[in-house]
Write a structure and sequence with these properties.
The protein folds into two domains: 3-223, no CATH class; 243-422, Orthogonal Bundle (Hypothetical protein af1432), CATH 1.10.3210. The protein is built from 19 helices and two strands. The chain has helices spanning 3-26, 33-47, 63-74, 76-85, 100-123, 133-162, 166-176, 179-199, 208-242, 244-263, 268-280, 290-293, 301-308, 310-321, 327-332, 354-369, 380-390, 397-408, 412-422; strands at 51-53, 58-60. The chain has a two-stranded antiparallel sheet with strand order 1-2. A hairpin with a 4-residue loop joins β1 and β2. Bound molecules: fe (ii) ion (2 copies).
Length: 423
């Protein structure tokens, strides 16, 4: 974790503590000890079973539905308590996997979210409102405050920690932790709060069932994406058995294409798709003869005809295994040239999808900086000279500039190349 991230977490913790003190001093703690024990216990049980969204490092927990119901029932102080303590999952105590700072951030984040939502609820006189339209609108507005403060704080810390743009990260989290999901939890929390008011805490265990059904539906949806991702990593491994260079090349091109796309300010959702396409870009080589792929001499016309087919074969194969519908097209065009002299369709300039232009640039850089049967690897500076010459003819100059900026930033991935050159 970066130093700046630590500083932000420290500031957020101070805000969370101050907000808690203010709320506890200003508003009544309306819940009884039994209420607190039941709600806290259920929140902790649900928190122990989060749903991971594969490949996105996001885990949605169902525990917050209960914390939110706690705000609706008893106001801001119980909201802070349930969100701060009830959100602790056993996983978080594994400090080998998760830094303690992450634990602190999670508490600070959730206390601030519950604090802001609870504060608004108290200001709007929510705890004493009767159930009706006014109550519904108040409850909805605090759900939105909770959701927005949660994604904002999460994006703030992730963008600082990973050196990404805040707005892009915020857009990514907004699109991945959908507002629809939050609204579903909102309705569930509303039902829980109302029946708790009418029937008391004895009915609470019943709500575990719908919450777990909601969780199961999430898992089903997540499993579909996970299966696709697993299929891709299996294929990359398979590609490695066939030709180890193409497999490791695909992984490097995917990393570099991701970095270039981020440098160019593309959205995180698109970056994820570009990474997917870059991983699969040379899949079409799987049917090619190794003699052609590793031939040190010039290729014959017949051999070039074989090579020309790989983007089309790749497009075809990726239709079956990519969960993103645009990916096959980007793979098809990864050997187009900016001046229109590429293959398979001879597209020119902006007619080539930007995603394919990015993959083409990462592809060219990797080919120059790695040993091939027909050429020795070159260092970063030589590669830059070569790529500058290709800008406008083979490659998009905007993408080449973005690549240079990525190299400037000295990512550890490219440091290896520099060290190699200095030897
Ligand atoms: Fe290729
Ligand atoms: Fe390639």
């Amino acid at each position: 974790m970066r130093k700046e991230t630590g500083r932000i977490i420290y500031i957020l913790s101070i805000i969370a503590i101050s907000l808690s003190i203010y709320i506890i001093k200003s508003y009544h703690f309306r819940a009884s000890l039994t209420d607190v024990i039941i709600l806290l216990a259920l929140a902790l049980i649900l928190e122990a079973f989060p749903v991971e969204i594969p490949g996105r490092q996001i885990a949605l927990s169902m525990g917050f539905t209960l914390s939110y119901a706690g705000i609706l029932l008893f106001g801001a102080p119980i909201g802070i308590l349930l969100n701060g303590l009830g959100s602790i999952s056993p996983e978080e105590f594994n400090f080998r996997l998760h830094e303690p700072k992450k634990f602190i951030f999670n508490r600070a984040n959730l206390v601030i979210c519950a604090g802001l939502a609870g504060l608004l609820y108290e200001i709007l006189n929510g705890p004493s409102l009767d159930f009706g339209w006014r109550y519904f609108l108040v409850a909805l507005s605090i759900a939105l405050v909770y959701w927005f403060s949660n994604v904002t704080l999460l994006s703030l810390v992730v963008s600082v920690d990973k050196g990404r743009r805040f707005i892009g990260t915020l857009a990514y989290y907004i699109s991945n932790i959908s507002i629809i999901t939050y609204l579903l939890h909102f309705f569930l929390a509303l039902v829980i709060a109302q029946s708790y008011k009418l029937l008391g805490p004895v009915v609470m265990p019943i709500y575990i069932v719908p919450i777990f059904i909601a969780r199961y539906l999430f898992i089903l949806a997540s499993e579909v994406s996970r299966t696709y991702d697993q299929a891709i990593s299996t294929l990359i491994k398979l590609l490695g058995v066939f030709d180890s260079y193409t497999s490791s090349h695909s992984l490097r091109v995917a990393q570099l294409a991701e970095d270039i796309a981020r440098e160019m300010g593309l959205s995180e959702t698109r970056i994820e798709r570009i990474r997917n396409a870059a991983l699969l870009h040379d899949l079409g080589k799987i049917g090619l003869s190794l003699n052609i792929l590793n031939k040190p001499d010039k290729l014959t016309k017949e051999e070039w005809t074989q090579i020309y087919k790989h983007p089309i074969v790749g497009e075809d194969l990726s239709k079956e295994i990519s969960r993103f519908k645009e990916v096959p097209l980007w793979i098809r065009h990864h050997h187009e040239r900016y001046n229109g002299n590429g293959y398979p369709d001879g597209l020119r300039g902006e007619y080539i999808p930007i995603e394919s232009r990015i993959i083409a640039c990462a592809d060219a850089f990797d080919a120059i900086t790695t040993d091939r049967p027909y050429s020795k690897r070159k260092g970063i500076e030589e590669a830059k000279i070569e790529l500058s010459k290709s800008a406008n003819s083979q490659l998009d100059p905007k993408v080449v500039s973005a690549l240079f900026r990525v190299l400037e930033k000295n990512s550890s991935l490219y440091n290896d190349l520099k060290i190699e050159k200095e030897k």
